[in-house]
Amino acid sequence: MPESKSKFLIPAVGAAVVIAGGIAAYTYLKGGPSGGSSDALGSAKVIPSTAMMATYITTDPQAWEKLRQFGTPEAQKLVAKSLENLNKEMFSDNNISYEKDIKPWAGGVMIAVLPPNPAKPVQLNLPPGAPTPPPNVQPEPNILVVVGIKDKISALNFANKLKSQKGVKFKESDYQGQKIIETTENGKPTYSVVLDNNHLVLAPEKQAVEKAIDTFKGQSSFASKEGVSNILKGVDVKNSLAQVYVPDYAGMVQQLAAASPQGTQLPPQTLAQLKQVKSVVAGVGVDDAGVRVKAIANLDPQLIKYQYQSTPGNIVGQFPTETFALVSGNGISRGWETVVEQSKDSPELKQALEQVRGQLKSVNIDLDKDIFGWMNGEFALGTIPSNQGILASVGFGGALVFDTSDRKTAEATFTKFDTLAKTQNINIANRKIGGKDVTEWQIPQQGALLAHGWLDSDTVFVAVGGPVADAIADRKSESLDKSEAFKAITSSLQKPNSGYFYVDMDKTKTLPVINSLISSEANTILSSIRGFGITATSPDKSTSELEMLLALKPAK
After folding, report:
1. Counting Cβ atoms within 10 Å, is residue 366 exposed (0-12), middle (13-18) or buried (19+)?
2. Three-state DSSP state, 386
3. CB of 293 within 8 A of CB of 547?
4. What residues does 285 pair with on adjacent strands?
């Protein structure tokens, strides 16, 4: 999207002068939309039904004020400074302040993405005989913004103030009995209209505003679109800051792909997979733990091939408390079977699988049986700090832990890999760690490159680096699932679930390789973050839910 469109909200603020014309008398100066999440429906009623998606951002001060309970004083000062700079940038040419002039009257903001207008080729005057370049006919999605007017007196005062601003030009036109204002600032036009004295509609394209007027006059709206009424209820998050509504997920992706600079047409196989998801609704809110995101996907049970299965969560207990990041799940073998099944309808995927199968078969390894066949239980990948041996340069190593009901096949697989490693002049050695038999791949003067062994009768691990193998096989600290950090970040996430994505920010940002990449300002912000926790669940065959928590530290 061109810069002139992506930043159209800056001059669009000036377009609010139309409110002065839209409010004829104080008869209409009663309270409008409050700006809370419940007002999304009113905004959706003036958005055309062709909208591919919409986002509603609340202006409810109580919800945003909740964020103030988090963060170090340094982080809060940095955020305040950034907001101040943003205010100056947006209104640098006008004596306007968001806090004083806009916040008092602006209700919730809904931003809708409409299908692109048909693009017209650019006519070029070229000399005779010159090659004609391909016309730039790529359409772009239209953006339509609806701002609730919660206080008409404040809006009227703001409009009168704007009339005296220099460098802003206004031009009126009529469409369907509604007054459209074209506002031009720095050569960039913005179009706006006030509908029912409660909603200010803004867009960088006049046609988008006209479509909103058509909707206001009776044409089908986003609110009346099939399937939208349910998702407009939003997602239940405390102190909602924003809600996102996608009524036709596959259709949206298809239209956006077609409107991309490459004009991509999705392959039938990709489109078929996208159609597994009917609609998506997501919400962002703030609660006592931090910023929480919840997303709900409405699925087509007839098209879903992978069957969800919850995870017991016991595998997390195999990792030590110093683990700073972890991904866990269940049933890799079932996921692999789904991939193989889908490859039957995708020649490219099928060819790629056959290539990998052939390469592994040449060294006597069966991809389906030896690699994925026995991975039928819980699994987890964790990263653990270490500055010894081959890990000294990066400061950490990783470990994979698997539960399996087919130990015999798993053992045979590791034996095959050990034999293959010997052909590459890697020394294979055995040692006891915490009373457990562990096999190591050793490199002279650097120690163990990789280690594997059994933690119990059905749990096997593979570790990168000898120190990580020690931490897993001979755990001397409490287990990760009992640590205060893990409980603080994941305990409020929904259960049962399919596993976790977990990051302890305090431990992560102190790693030398990470610390060297972040600026002092970034470190200030990260110091207010306790960590990330993400999980997913599926309460039934037609619903999939994702939950993410950005765990924040309380303000001091």
Report:
1. middle
2. coil
3. yes
4. 240, 292
CA nearest neighbour of 498 among 315, 247, 273: 315
> Is the peptide bond preceding residue 496 cis, with omega within 30 degrees of 0?
yes
pLDDT at residue 377 greater than cutoff 80: yes
* Higher pLDDT, residue 295 or 226: 295
Query: Whole-angstrom Cα distance, residue 469 to residue 475?
Result: 9
Backbone φ, ψ for residue 176 (5° rounding): 55, 35
* Radius of gyration, CA atoms only, the chain: 29
pLDDT, the chain, mean:
86
The SS3 call for residue 436 is: strand
Of 46-60, 73-87, 300-314, 518-532, the one with minimum mean pLDDT is 73-87
Dist CA 104 CA 84 (whole Å): 17
Q: Would you say residue 196 has pLDDT above 50?
A: yes
DSSP-derived secondary structure letter, 267: P
CA 549 to chain centre: 12
Cα separation values, 534 from 76, 295, 378, 493, 537, Å: 25, 11, 17, 8, 11
- Residue identified by tokens 């209820």 is 233
pLDDT-based confidence at residue 103 (cuts at 50, 70, 90): confident
- Listed in sequence order, the residues at least 6 apart from 200 whose beta carbon sits closer than 8 Å to its beta carbon are 15, 16, 18, 19, 146, 147, 148, 149, 192, 193, 194
Determine the pLDDT at residue 95.
Answer: 67
Please give the helix or strand (H or E) that residue 378 lies within, else none.
strand 378-385
Q: Which of 518, 520, 521, 508 is nearest to 79 (CA)?
A: 521
The dihedrals phi and psi of 475, each to the nearest 5 degrees, come to -65, 120
d(CA 532, CA 41): 32
- For the question of whether the overall pTM of this predicted structure is more than 0.85, the answer is yes
User: What is the Cα–Cα distance from 437 to 414, expressed in whole angstroms?
Assistant: 13
515-550 residues labelled b (16+ CB within 10 A) or e (exposed): eeeeeeeeebbbebbbbbbbbbbbeeeeebbbbbbb
Q: Is 473 in contact with 438 (CB distance < 8 Å)?
A: yes
Instruction: Say if residues 283 and 234 touch (Cβ distance below 8 Å).
Output: yes
Host H or E run for residue 242: strand 240-246
